[in-house]
Amino acid sequence: MNRRSFLLAGGTFFLSAAAAVAAPEFRLGKEPDTNAIDNKMINPYQTVGNYKDDHHRVFMFISFDCPYCAESWYGYGKWGRTLPDPFKFVYVPLFGSQRMNTAAVTFYALRELAPHRLPEYMRQAFTLTASGHHDTTQYSAILRKMGFTDEQIGKAIKSSITEKRINRAIRLSKNYRVDKTPTFGVAGRYATHPGYTNGNYVMLKDLLNTLVTKAIENT
User: Fold this and answer.
1) Residues linked to residue 92 through DSSP beta bridges, in sequence order
2) Does the pLDDT at position 2 exceed 80?
3) What is the DSSP secondary-structure string of 71-140?
4) Closest CA to 79 of 170, 195, 209
5) How far apart are CA 179 and CA 22, in angstroms?
6) What is the C-alpha separation between 167 and 92, in angstroms, rounded?
7) What is the Cα–Cα distance from 182 to 198, expressed in whole angstroms?
8) Rounded to an integer, what distance in angstroms lies between the CA atom of residue 50 and that of residue 215?
9) 157-182 tens-digit pLDDT
């Protein structure tokens, strides 16, 4: 498959992903500061439901256009590896603009090809944001630089498992009422983001630990 064919094949998924969800206008998280949570604040999170399939998941909803996601994704991923079994930490890229769609579809293509290399892609994709690149073909170029052929990438994009993962990602963003990035979904019950901790990311991590503990106690 040549590069033009790959881009055309991928375009079907970009368009279907954008059409499948009336995406809200995602807002960026706040810059970290040292202010504490107001002592009068009750429940610094939303209760979103009881999604049983997510009981042992902590989701980090990200946008590759979000500078705060770029600053925090690695640290939270490292924290996610400390979660008690059977919990798992999962990145969920958001869909909305053409750039978001392209970056997210490429993320899921790599998840099919080599999931252990996702951090490598994420680091480079966030670097594109920081450098001000607006050419959406740069995301697939990352995979080619990683050694994957257009044929491999196109096949991964068109696979049924990639389509299912994209649909699930869109559904998750609705379930957890994501309207800013980064947002965290915990155990199928809770959603929170830096706005609840006045931009203090250290306090947010403590809050996530509390929500995981709360979820364990409620099962």
Assistant:
1) 61
2) no
3) HHHHHHHHHHTTSPTT-EEEEEE---SHHHHHHHHHHHHHHHH-GGGHHHHHHHHHHHHHHT---THHHH
4) 209
5) 12
6) 11
7) 13
8) 10
9) 999 999 999 999 999 999 999 999 99
Strands 46-47 and 190-192: antiparallel
Could you count the other beta carbons within 10 Å of the beta carbon of residue 205?
Answer: 16
How do strand 57-62 and strand 88-93 relate by DSSP bridges? parallel
Q: Tokens for 167? A: 């649909």
CA 193 – CA 200 distance, rounded (Å): 10
User: Cα separation of 219 and 60, whole Å?
Assistant: 22
Q: Residue 132: how many CA atoms within 13 Å on its side-chain side?
A: 0
- For residues 126-130, average pLDDT: 84
State the pLDDT at residue 133.
Answer: 67
> Cβ(114)–Cβ(81) under 8 Å?
no
